[in-house]
Design goal:
Distance between the termini: 57 Å
Mean pLDDT: 88
Structural class: mainly alpha
Number of helices: 19
Low-confidence stretches: none
Length: about 400
């Protein structure tokens, strides 16, 4: 299945994990030691290994070059954000918000390359879990996480000869860690559970593991707590499921232009979902469409503390513009543009804003810049924007 996915990260992860298992299962090290006694053969093997590595790396990079360049940009922006909050980070589940603000600042304060602008994205995932941990929890979080991983690997390396299960589990753990360098497995619950599963196996099979003995009375108390806690947890999850279903109904109502009914539902479930940036963005946009601009601004500003999405700042700017608060609207449109500079819509809104407030000179200058923008993906919407820019230029 893997070749058809074109997932380069999974290819590399599988190869490295499998090599670990093969080396520790078939005594490859002894075979390599015997083979490399001949210096000429050792040199030839080294040259062949380097050639294969460089060629493979180059080929994997060029397979989806834009995707690779996009990840390199994300890693650079993430590293800059870690430098801004090196010790404690930006906070739990704050990656998207912190990353978006940092990227907007980067494009705003640098003479950036157009190639970088074309591969910029919203930054929902870091495509490197170590960097994500650094952004959210700082160097303290990275050190804590690495300590756990290093201890587990040390245990597995010290005991791999005693158990084939440790070899298999260590190979799986290494594959997962390699995959996490280029993707976002810890953001997916099943893959994150695998991490704990592998660590538990290594710990349980280690002869030097720490055993915590629990007396009979303590076990009974623990059993009762778990027994009583299960219905409570089940009720919480059921309530969460019902709330998500209500959100789904509200979204369907809004798509059918039943905005008042959708707002009533979203207003009711807001206290339960106010921590989710995607919900607050959805709620704020529906309020804006229904022309509840003041309320929409409150909701969207709260959403801006949870996520960084160009559509959020476009909607926020439109609310300010509807209330004739042009300076605030301009800042929102500019922020949306610098978040992802290859998007046409924020600049289109900015041109319309300048035209509305009577600043035709600024509107024409920006319209000419929009006309020169590189079109990444052609669409009917972009064609309409370009026609509108022609109209503004000819005013």
């Amino acid at each position: 299945v893997l070749p058809s996915t074109l997932s380069r990260a999974s290819w590399v992860a599988v190869i490295i994990g499998s090599l670990f298992v093969i080396v520790h299962s078939y005594n490859i090290r002894k075979w390599y030691s015997d083979l490399t006694r001949n210096k000429l053969l050792k040199g030839a093997l080294l040259v062949a290994s380097v050639t294969i590595f460089v060629t493979t790396t180059f080929g994997i990079y060029n397979l989806k070059k834009d995707s690779a360049d996009g990840r390199l940009l994300m890693w650079k922006i993430s590293a800059q954000q870690i430098a801004n909050n090196p010790l404690l980070g930006s906070g739990i589940n704050k990656f998207t918000h912190a990353f978006g603000n940092q990227q907007a600042q980067y494009f705003h304060s640098h003479e950036f390359d157009e190639k970088e602008a074309l591969v910029a994205g919203k930054g929902e995932y870091a495509f490197n879990e170590f960097l994500k941990i650094g952004v959210e929890h700082g160097l303290i979080g990275i050190v804590f996480f690495l300590t756990i991983i290093i201890c587990a690997l040390q245990v597995s390396f010290a005991n791999y000869s005693n158990s084939k299960m440790i070899v298999a589990t260590s190979g799986s753990l290494i594959s997962l860690l390699v995959f996490s360098l280029f993707s976002y497995p810890f953001s997916m619950t099943p893959l994150l559970l695998n991490l704990f599963f592998f660590l538990c196996i290594i710990s349980a099979l280690s002869p030097n593991n720490f055993n915590v003995r629990i007396g009979r009375g303590s076990r009974i108390i623990l059993f009762i707590l778990i027994f009583l806690g299960c219905p409570f947890i089940l009720k919480m999850q059921l309530n969460k499921y019902q709330i998500m279903q209500e959100w789904k109904v509200a979204s369907l109502l809004s798509s059918n232009s039943s905005y008042k009914e959708a707002i009533e539902i979203m207003n009711k479930i807001e206290p339960e979902l106010c921590y989710r940036g995607d919900f607050m963005l959805d709620y704020g946009q529906i309020l804006a469409i229904n022309e509840n601009y003041v309320r929409a601004i409150r909701v969207l500003k709260q959403a801006s503390n949870l996520t960084s999405d160009p559509y959020l700042f476009n909607s926020l700017g439109q609310c300010y513009q509807a209330l004739k608060m042009y300076e605030e609207a301009e800042l929102c449109y500019l922020h949306a543009y610098y978040l992802i500079p290859h998007k046409f819509y924020p600049r289109y809104l900015l041109v319309k804003l300048y035209e509305e407030r009577g600043d035709l000179a600024s509107a024409k200058i920006l319209a000419m810049k929009v006309k020169k923008m590189y079109i990444k993906v052609k669409s009917k919407a972009i064609d309409e924007i370009l026609k509108e820019m022609d109209r503004v230029i000819n005013l």
